[in-house]
Structures are given as structure tokens and as C-alpha cells.
Write a structure and sequence with these properties.
Length: about 525
């Protein structure tokens, strides 16, 4: 072999090596491309059948090693389809967004959704729906499903907790009905009936039970009104009787007096005539003996008439006196009846201003006094501190130990509150487990100390329920009347302070300037 041949062989060998390397590289590239196409077609799979078919063809062409020239129509076809798919995707995206928003809003309207679920839902609807791709909807849908679950669970708990009460429950109406029943003052003889109705309301907020309870209360009210009306009618009848008796006494007296005065007039006339005739006869008398006999006889008759007249006058006076006494007695009876009735009426009014359970002034009485104090403040600008007081976690007392225990607690706390304030302060039961205190002449800056005393007094009451020692605390929110206030704005400020006391841990006083 010549050098030249050797050289050519070497070159050929090198060329073959390069070609092999190129073929290997190309094969590798085709493999990568077909794997990519396979992955792409798998990820697009299911979106559109025609596109799926095209992608399958493309994959098998790549596997077979089809000429690149032949891929071109396949790729064009797929591009058009992908473009169409893009439009379909974006329409789907819009529709998905709309249906998530709609179902979220619908969920918001569902009653009894737990507070954390409600908050999560509000945030989701307000801030999380601005997504660009369909995939981003997945965590949102996941959240929405969680909130739906929470809502369903809470509904299911309510239903299984009280299986006998049925699904139509209305705790708000129950609370309002109870508060109204607590505002009313009933007579002693219906106290037990009222107590059992209140118990029913607090144990059961089923609409049917509430309706029956409301009817029960209305029946009792109607009965009391009828009784009150009857007693008013009775009073009027007896008043009328006494007036009639009085009237007939006066008529008797007048008649009697008139007949007596007729008799007296007759007698007076007789006496007058006698005196006149005596006068005439004395003129005519001719002798002393005749005159004496005449005067003697006439004087006897005259003196007996005079005695008769005196008797008659005395009898007249006595009869008149007796009659006046009778009339006086009747007037006294009348006066006593009217005074008693007035007393009853004012007791009734007083009762209307008193809370039946705690015997503290009620909300109506507070409103009166509050407006009065406000009016005085407007005129005199004196310091008046207003405090709203609320028993902490009172619901749990009712829930754990029963409504009667709750009632007793309210009575004990009301008494303790009344004892721990000044005589000049005014405390009322505002409703439920809420009390209001007015402290005239007390600047807010100096109110903290006496209010602390009120708070610790209540905290140290040794309550015991079902053999268990229980500590009960109160929260207080206080403010002072200030220039430009209305009763409402002052009250709202005290209420805000109470809210702050509750939110910052309860068993405390918050002041609001
Ligand atoms: N026993 C009884 N309970 C009453 C009366 N008036 C209102 N209530 C109950 O008082 C409870 C008040 O509960 P909430 O308003 O939830 O307040 P709370 O449990 O005291 O909790 P916080 O105020 O947040 O500390 C409700 O359960 C009412 O039914 C009443 O005259 N007697």
C-alpha cells in the first residue's frame, strides 16, 4: 500500500467517524423532540379530540423518523387547532371565574356559616380571583370546597344537637321574645305560668315553640287587661253608688229643710197675728182687769207658740246638722275611694317603669332619666358619667346551669350593683344581661376608682351552681357627656368602650373620652 492510499483510508475513516457522530447527535435530537412532543400531546390530551388525533400522528411520525418536510402540514394543522383551543380556553376561564364568584356569593348568603369560614370566603372573593391560568383556579376551588364543608358541618351539628326541635329554628327571635317577656311586669298569680313560658323560650328556639310561647304571653296580657278593666268598672260602679247616695241625702235635707221652714213660717205668722191682735185688743180694753185678763190669756198662747217655734228651730238645726254629717261621711268615703284608685294607678305606672326580674328601673325609666340628665347637662354643663355594664359569658351560665340559675344571677348582680353605687347615681337594667349607670356630678377622670369597686364587688360574689363554685365577672364601658353630644352619640361612645373592654379580655373597665 502506497502512502497515498494510506492517507485516503485514514481520511475516509475520519469522515465515517464524523458522520457517525452526526447521526448519533441527530438521533438524540429527534429523541428529545419526540419525547417533548409526546409530553406536550399528553398534557394537551382531552382538550379536543381532533387535536389529540393530530398530536398522535405527529408522535408516530417522529418515532418512524419521517422526513422533516412531511411534518410541515401536520405542524400547520396543529397550530390552527391550538389557536382555536386558546379561544375556547379563555371562554372557559371566564365561565369558571363567573361560576366561582356566583357560588361564593350564594354561600355568603347562607345563615350559620362559621365566622372563620365567612372571613375566608370574603377574602377569597375580594382578593384571590384575579388569576391568569385555569390551573391557578385549583387552590381556589379547593378553598371554596373547604368553606362549603364548614357550612355543611355547622348545619349538620345544629340539626344533630337538637333533633327534636326540627329545622325551623330562629335564635334571634327567641332572644327578642325573651327580652320582651322580661320587660313585662306580670301579677303574682301568673308568675309561675310566665316563668315556664320563659323557660320554654330559652330552652328551645324552634319556631313553633316560639309561636306558642308568644301566644301564651299575649293570652296572659289579655287576661290582665280584662281584669284591670273589670276592676276599673267596679270602681266606677261603686263611685256612682256613693254619688247617688250623696245626691239623695242632699235632696232629703233640702226637702226636710223646706217643710220645716214652711212650718216655721206658719208659726211666725201666727205669732205675728197674735201680737197684732193683742195690740189691737189692748187699745180697745177699757179697764185694767179686762186688760190683765186679755194679756194673760194671749200671753199664755203666745209663749206656747214661742216654745213651739224654738223647738222647731232646734229640730231644724239638728236635722240639718245630721244631714250635713251624713253628707260629709259620704264625701269622705268618696275621697278615700278616689285616693285609693289614684294610688293604684300610680303604682301601675311605677310598675311599668320597673324591671320585673331585678326590680331595678327598666329601660323606659332609664330613657326618661337619661333624657332628663342630658337636658340638665345642656343647661348647666355639669359632669355626668355614663357607664354601660355587661355580664361576661352570661350565655354559658344559662347553657350550663339553666335559665333559672341565669335569672337568679341577674337578681343577685342587680342587688350588688345597686348597693355598690352612690345614692345619687342611677342604675337600670337596660335589657338582657346589660345594665346602665348614670353618675351625675362625676367627671370621667374620677370614675375609674368607684367603677373598679363595682367590678371587684361583683367578681367576689361567691356564686355556686350544681355544687360548683363559679366566678362571674362584668365588663364596663364608660364615657362622659360632652359639648355637642346627643343622647345617642354619648350612649354609642359608652357602648364602644364596652366593646373594647370585651374585646381586650373582659373583666375590665374601658374609658372613652
Ligand atoms: N336567664 C336569663 N337569661 C337572659 C335574660 N336576658 C337575656 N338572657 C341571656 O343572656 C345571654 C346573653 O348572651 P350573649 O349576648 O351571647 O353574651 P354573653 O354570653 O354574655 O357573652 P359576652 O357578652 O360576649 O361576654 C343570652 O343567652 C340570653 O338568652 C334573662 O332575663 N334571664
Amino acid at each position: 500500500m502506497t502512502d497515498n492510499t494510506e492517507h485516503l483510508e485514514k481520511k475516509l475513516g475520519q469522515a465515517i467517524k464524523v458522520r457517525k457522530a452526526l447521526e448519533t447527535a441527530r438521533k438524540y435530537q429527534v429523541d428529545v423532540l419526540s419525547q417533548f412532543a409526546a409530553k406536550l400531546s399528553l398534557s394537551c390530551k382531552g382538550q379536543d379530540v381532533a387535536l389529540d388525533n393530530q398530536l398522535a400522528k405527529f408522535r408516530s411520525a417522529l418515532n418512524k423518523g419521517m422526513d422533516f418536510e412531511e411534518f410541515s402540514p401536520l405542524i400547520d394543522n396543529m397550530s390552527t387547532m391550538l389557536k382555536k383551543q386558546e379561544a375556547v380556553n379563555s371562554a372557559n376561564h371566564r365561565q369558571l371565574l363567573q361560576s366561582i364568584t356566583d357560588s361564593g356569593k350564594q354561600l355568603q348568603r347562607v345563615k350559620g356559616l362559621p365566622e372563620d369560614g365567612r372571613r375566608m370566603l370574603r377574602y377569597l372573593l375580594d382578593h384571590e380571583l384575579d388569576v391568569q391560568s385555569t390551573n391557578e383556579f385549583i387552590p381556589i376551588l379547593d378553598k371554596l370546597v373547604t368553606i362549603y364543608n364548614k357550612a355543611l358541618q355547622s348545619k349538620a351539628t345544629v340539626l344533630t344537637d337538637t333533633p327534636s326541635s326540627g329545622p325551623d329554628k330562629n335564635p334571634e327571635v327567641a332572644a327578642e321574645l325573651l327580652a320582651l317577656a322580661n320587660e313585662l311586669i306580670f301579677d303574682e298569680d301568673v308568675a309561675n305560668e310566665v316563668k315556664s313560658i320563659k323557660n320554654n323560650i330559652s330552652l328551645n328556639d324552634n319556631v313553633d315553640v316560639l309561636l306558642e310561647s308568644a301566644l301564651g304571653i299575649v293570652r296572659i296580657i289579655v287576661k290582665s287587661i280584662a281584669r284591670e278593666r273589670q276592676s276599673a268598672q267596679g270602681f266606677l260602679v261603686s263611685l256612682n253608688q256613693t254619688l247617688e247616695e250623696l245626691h239623695s241625702s242632699i235632696i232629703d235635707t233640702t226637702k226636710n229643710s223646706r217643710s220645716m221652714s214652711d212650718e216655721l213660717n206658719g208659726l211666725n205668722k201666727k205669732i205675728e197675728t197674735k201680737i197684732k191682735s193683742l195690740n189691737e185688743q189692748t187699745q180697745k180694753a177699757t179697764s185694767m182687769t179686762e186688760l190683765k185678763a186679755l194679756v194673760d190669756g194671749e200671753l199664755k198662747i203666745l209663749s206656747s207658740d214661742l216654745v213651739k217655734r224654738e223647738k222647731l228651730e232646734r229640730a231644724d238645726k239638728e236635722a240639718l246638722f245630721a244631714s250635713f254629717e251624713k253628707i260629709n261621711d259620704r264625701i269622705n268615703v268618696l275621697e278615700t275611694k278616689v285616693t285609693n284608685y289614684k294610688k293604684r294607678l300610680s303604682e301601675q305606672r311605677f310598675k311599668n317603669l320597673l324591671d320585673g326580674l331585678t326590680k331595678l328601673p327598666n329601660r323606659a325609666a332609664f330613657d326618661d332619666r337619661f333624657n332628663q340628665e342630658f337636658h340638665l347637662f345642656d343647661l348647666q354643663k355639669t359632669d355626668v358619667t355614663l357607664v354601660v355594664i355587661d355580664i361576661d359569658h352570661f350565655k354559658s351560665i344559662n347553657d350550663q346551669y339553666g335559665h333559672s340559675a341565669g335569672d337568679k344571677t341577674l337578681q343577685v348582680i342587680a342587688r350588688a350593683l345597686k348597693k355598690s353605687i352612690r345614692k345619687s347615681d342611677f342604675i337600670a337594667r337596660y335589657g338582657g344581661e346589660e345594665f346602665v349607670l348614670l353618675m351625675p356630678g362625676m367627671p370621667l377622670g374620677q370614675a375609674k376608682q368607684p367603677l373598679e369597686k363595682v367590678r371587684t364587688t361583683i367578681k367576689s360574689i361567691p356564686f355556686k351552681f350544681k355544687e360548683k363554685q363559679v366566678q362571674i365577672t362584668i365588663s364596663l364601658g364608660a364615657t362622659q357627656f360632652k359639648e355637642g353630644d346627643t343622647p345617642l352619640s354619648a350612649f354609642d361612645r359608652a357602648d364602644d368602650a364596652l366593646y373594647e373592654a370585651k374585646n381586650s379580655g373582659r373583666d375590665r373597665i374601658c374609658l372613652r373620652e
